[in-house]
Design goal:
- This protein is an alpha+beta fold.
- The protein folds into two domains: 6-26 and 211-386, 3-Layer(aba) Sandwich (Protein Transport Mog1p, Chain A); 32-199, 3-Layer(aba) Sandwich (Protein Transport Mog1p, Chain A), CATH 3.40.1000.10.
- It has five helices and 19 strands.
- It has helices at 119-130, 183-196, 206-210, 278-296, 362-386; strands at 45-48, 58-61, 67-74, 84-94, 102-111, 133-139, 144-150, 158-167, 170-179, 198-199, 212-215, 225-228, 232-237, 246-252, 260-268, 302-309, 320-329, 335-345, 348-357.
- A hairpin with a 7-residue loop joins strand 7 (144-150) and strand 8 (158-167).
- It is elongated, with a radius of gyration of 22 Å.
Length: 387
């Protein structure tokens, strides 16, 4: 893979001043079924054993007329992403009266921590292997989520709903496959099964424990810290004697190709009741990309294709906007994927942004979704401080 940021190897880390310039939705379906009140006294939960990966044992709603058969078969479809040490099909559940119209597979995966991703991105990664067209995305916090997918053929009668839950360095994936003409009957059952699933044993989350707080230079008398995963190192930060903003860029020391970077930006304005327009937020996000590229690749021109896709799975407030853009570098023609989430917090404008390899191959997809995990960690950490 060609490195996006060849200059990173030659940039020093001390005495750097962040270059700044004056700053002047995919589809997501509402999943009503998942929010339905479950009368747990009426719907008894039962234990499920994930044989071969017993740490993932869980309790969930009982699926009537379902039988489960053990599998314990290694799956190789995701080897090319380099994100897992092993993926295994553990069991398959089905209705013996009609085994084809509705099945659930339980899959375990051993995660490589250096490529950790959000739960919803794992669900999407697995789902696209079976049905490439993602129809709906549902994020259940940082470490869980599910998607609905359909086959590439418009006439396909099969649907997939795939959910993923992380338990430390293990991943539980549930794949529900069913025929479209059974959706009214099947989908409420899937929602109940996914919605009640709870691991039997809490994890001592080594991924969470490896996150660190890195103090940033004070801005207008306020000190912020960046919450970052292991291996992500600060490349540049605002270092003027009394900066009017907080800004820092981080790169992944465990990425040999140097194909990812994340940035955190806090701009106090001193103006209460900020209410920027959609267009102002859009242009602010474009300026953040310009700042990142100017620091990562000085004097390299680029073309920005805005709004390649909105970010449907993010939990955004009324004063937050998320953008995904494509950047084409002049000369090489290489493409980059840029993601920016902009928030208004009191009198401050805040952005958490990332730049990564364009996802046109498995390795690039792995880089992209790991970078999205890092931006989520940064964003959650900053939100805690601002609140």
């Amino acid at each position: 893979m060609k490195s996006i940021f060849p200059l990173l190897r030659r940039i020093g880390l001390s005495g750097l001043v962040l270059a700044t310039t004056a700053i002047g939705f995919g589809v997501a379906a509402e999943d009503n079924v998942d929010h339905m009140a479950l009368d747990r006294a009426a719907r008894a939960l039962e234990p499920y054993v994930v044989k071969g990966a017993e740490s993932l044992n869980f309790h969930g709603v009982k699926l009537n007329n379902f039988v489960w058969s053990g599998e314990n078969r290694t799956l190789s479809e995701w080897d090319e992403y380099g994100m897992f040490d092993k993926v295994s099909l553990r069991s398959t559940g089905y209705d013996p009266a009609d085994p084809d119209h509705f099945q659930i597979q339980l899959i375990s995966a051993e995660i490589k921590p250096e490529t950790i991703a959000r739960g919803v991105d794992y669900a999407r990664l697995f789902a696209k292997e079976w049905s490439p067209s993602i129809e709906a995305i549902r994020e259940r916090g940082r470490d869980a989520g599910d998607v609905t997918a359909v086959g590439a053929d418009p006439g396909s009668n099969r649907r997939e709903r795939v959910a993923a839950w992380r338990w430390d360095k293990l991943l539980l994936v549930a794949r529900a496959s069913y025929s479209a003409d059974q959706a009214d009957f099947v989908e409420p059952r899937i929602a109940q099964f996914f919605g009640t699933l709870k691991f039997d044993r809490p994890a001592q989350d080594s991924i969470e424990q490896s996150l660190r707080w890195e103090k940033l230079p004070p801005s207008s008398g306020t000190i912020y810290s960046a919450h970052v995963p292991e291996g992500w190192m600060k490349l540049r930060q605002s270092s003027a004697p009394s900066p009017s903003y907080t800004a820092a860029l981080f790169t992944n020391s465990k990425d040999p190709n140097g194909n990812s970077a994340v940035g955190l930006f806090v701009f106090p304005t001193g103006r209460k009741g900020l209410a920027p327009t959609d267009e102002e937020l859009r242009q602010f996000a474009a300026k953040i990309i310009d700042i990142e590229l100017e620091n990562l690749m000085p004097k390299v021109g680029y073309k920005l294709d805005q709004d390649v896709a909105f970010i449907p799975e993010e939990k955004l407030g009324d004063s937050e906007r998320g953008y995904i853009d494509a950047v084409t570098l002049q000369g090489s023609g290489q493409r980059i994927r840029a993601k920016t989430v902009v928030s208004v917090k009191g009198d401050m404008i805040v952005a958490v942004a990332s730049i990564s390899a364009y996802p046109d191959g498995p390795a690039e997809v792995a880089t992209m979704i790991h970078t999205d995990f890092v931006t989520r960690v940064l964003s959650d950490g900053l939100t805690k401080q601002l609140n």
